[in-house]
Amino acid sequence: MSVNQEIRKVTTHRLTEMKLRGEKISMLTSYDFSMAKLVDEAGIDVILVGDSASNVMAGNQTTLPITLEQMIYHGKSVVNAVQRALVVVDLPFGTYQGNSRKALKSAIRIMKETAADSVKLEGGSEVIDSVERILSAGIPVMGHLGLMPQSINKFGTYSVRAREEAEAEKLVSDARLLEEAGCFALVLEKIPATLGEKVAALLQIPVIGIGAGSGVDGQVLVIHDMLGITQQFSPRFLRRYHNLAAEIKGAVDHYINDVKSGDFPNKKEQY
Ligand code: KIV
């Protein structure tokens, strides 16, 4: 981008406009400065500082252990890098459920200490008090329904959600509730494509899918998965755009050989 070209920041309002004109929204996760800078410069619309950091950055089995302080650390690192994308930071498990005052406190800490643009949280009617209280402070909220990794211990599996009619009906009513409360967008994770399309058509706010089919208003993936850094995780919805694991291992292998053989550093690489 030339110095004369002004960077137009993506806002929640611009995302609504994109939905209105049928322009799909691109969203990826990032958790650190260097990756977020590359992702932003490539032109992504939304960067999610997901609590998937618990898995891909810290190596935990679930998203439950990550703390508010750790999310703030990741959020601030990402915001430091981003000029254009809208930045959303996940409220971690235990910081908003069952206590709307605590939820507001957590959201305010994220907004003050990271300077992100918005927060995301999982759930519908169960967390609507928290959603409303956060929104009342002028903090934009992105909802998240379908597979909700923070509730893994309730469901016991990461399989496709809302295949049964009752669960699909609850998802639709929760989606409406979140929109009426004032959420600016909604993530739908791992649900049938027909249901994703139905919800996107019912709502005015943008619906971003991860494993929710092509009929939604945008797509989100975890950056480590789509770049092929993580290797064990291969759900059907994941398209890998690179095999970075192989490239990184190849480069490290090359470096080790050069060090061991004395090839590195050469004359030009020393003082
Ligand atoms: O934490 C995360 O990365 C997410 C996405 C899977 C949507 O919530």
Tell me what you see in this structure.
It contains eleven helices and eight strands. The protein is an alpha/beta fold and 271 residues long. Strands 1-2-3-4-5-6-7-8 form an eight-stranded parallel β-barrel, surrounded by seven helices. Strand 3 (86-90), helix 5 (100-114) and strand 4 (118-120) form a beta-alpha-beta unit. The two termini are 35 Å apart. The model has no long low-confidence stretch (mean pLDDT 97). The chain binds 3-methyl-2-oxobutanoic acid. Residues 29, 48, 50-52, 90, 187, 189, 210, 220, 222 line the site of 3-methyl-2-oxobutanoic acid.
Feature tags:
single chain, 271 residues, alpha/beta, TIM Barrel, 8-stranded parallel β-barrel, 8 strands, 41% helix, binds 3-methyl-2-oxobutanoic acid
Q: Give the oligomeric state of the chains in this entry, treating copies of one chain as homo and distinct chains as hetero.
A: single chain
Sheet with most strands: 8 strands, parallel, barrel
CATH H level, superfamily name of the largest domain? Phosphoenolpyruvate-binding domains
The ordered string of helix (H) and strand (E) elements is: HEHEHHEHEHEHHEHEEHH
Which second-level CATH architecture of the largest domain applies?
Answer: Alpha-Beta Barrel
Topology diagram in text:
Elements: H1 12-20, E1 25-29, H2 33-41, E2 46-49, H3 53-56, H4 68-79, E3 86-90, H5 100-114, E4 118-120, H6 128-136, E5 141-146, H7 152-155, H8 165-181, E6 185-189, H9 193-202, E7 207-210, E8 218-221, H10 223-226, H11 244-261
Parallel strand pairs: 1-2, 1-8, 2-3, 3-4, 4-5, 5-6, 6-7, 7-8
The structure holds 3-methyl-2-oxobutanoic acid.
3-methyl-2-oxobutanoic acid binds near residues 50, 90 and 210.
